[in-house]
Please model this.
Amino acid sequence: MFNWLQAGADWLVYSAAGLAPESHLGAAVNFFVFDTLKIFILLFAITIVMGIVNSYIPIDRLRNFLSRNKLFGIEYVLASAFGVVTPFCSCSSVPLFIGFVKGGIPLGITFTYLITAPLVNEVAIAVFLGAFGLQVTAIYVGTGITLGILGGWMLGKMHLEKSLAPWVQEILAKAHEESELPPEHRPFSNRIREILREAAHTVRGIAIYVLIGIGIGAIMHGFLPTGFFEGYVTKGQWYSVPLVVLLGIPMYSNAAGVIPVVQVLVAKGIPLGTAIAFMMGVIGLSLPEALLLKKIMNWRLIAIYFSTIGAFMILSGYLFNFWF
Model:
């Protein structure tokens, strides 16, 4: 489906609108059209799926099961594994994150998914394997999964549910109240109309954040030069790793787009850990992601999330530099 969307975006921007593919404006507009369609389709589809799940599966039992900590951390491993098999960037994974939160899944587990999905997926693994070989790829995959598990676990232990947006808290409270009621036996045709209305309401509610976020990402994607940050990274300096993480945040991209850049940086002599820390900042944290998340959480929680994961990325960069 994404290939069809990309082909449609290419036709609309390059053929119908007449923009040049090699121009900054053409690249930015193409990025905006494709990602807007992709994220809106994902958001609407996943909201419908979660609505069906909530309608037929006793989500309160699942929520309570995951909250009792009887799995000895396996629930975080499962969330991280699910992130590995979903090939989404940081913004594309937000719709699933919203669905998990609305379904009442504990916040720490949803954060584990949100961290892992953009960092480690089959696309990232395939491109990374071709660029750096099996050993580095295996270590990176293990590091990304560990980062997701530890980051989600730490954020879950902070009990940050009160930092979710009021409308999300209302949904969670309503879901808890409805879980106390006996299950309704309604035909699917009746349920699906309600589910579709709820999905449309959710999409309308965050549409402006999606458009603003993708717009910023499109500007960064089309107009920010690939070599912008190279002049700021000095080999061997202690501050290089945290600096490249910060520089990577506004340069929103996915793994397939940034790994070749990382390969060039390493070939130019930038330490592998520093280059990987930059890649993590680009694909794991982004300003568009922050704007999307603003609809479901306050700035305090976003700052805690970015700070916690950013610290883990910096630590990973130092460890890679030590190993290699």
In short: The radius of gyration is 20 Å. The chain has a mean pLDDT of 77. The chain is about 75% helix and 0% strand. Residues 108 and 157 are 7 Å apart (CA to CA).
